[in-house]
Fold this protein.
Amino acid sequence: MATLEKVCTLVRSKNAGPFWVTVDLFFDGQENYARYADAKALGPETFARLYGADPALVKRFPVESLNMVKISYPRTTSQGGMIERDMHCGQQYVRLLDIELD
């Protein structure tokens, strides 16, 4: 079973302002990009389940020339709030690494 960790050379998450998080998925080549970029496992429902995001607000930006997909979702609380545990969202990608894509 293919996972993001196996088909991507880089998976990162980052702050996209005080109300959004962005995840960048850099696939290890055109073949895996074509096969997995639109995988249902990378859909809004996954981000709702893992991060509590409203699936209607999850945005997907494919960048074919870089073999990457950028996925943005709204934070459940604003950056720097009292319950914030990862202010710059640099650790959020970890939950995605074991997602099965097939």
Summary: The chain has three helices and four strands. Helices lie at 4-7, 30-36, 44-51. The beta strands are 8-15, 20-27, 59-63, 68-74.
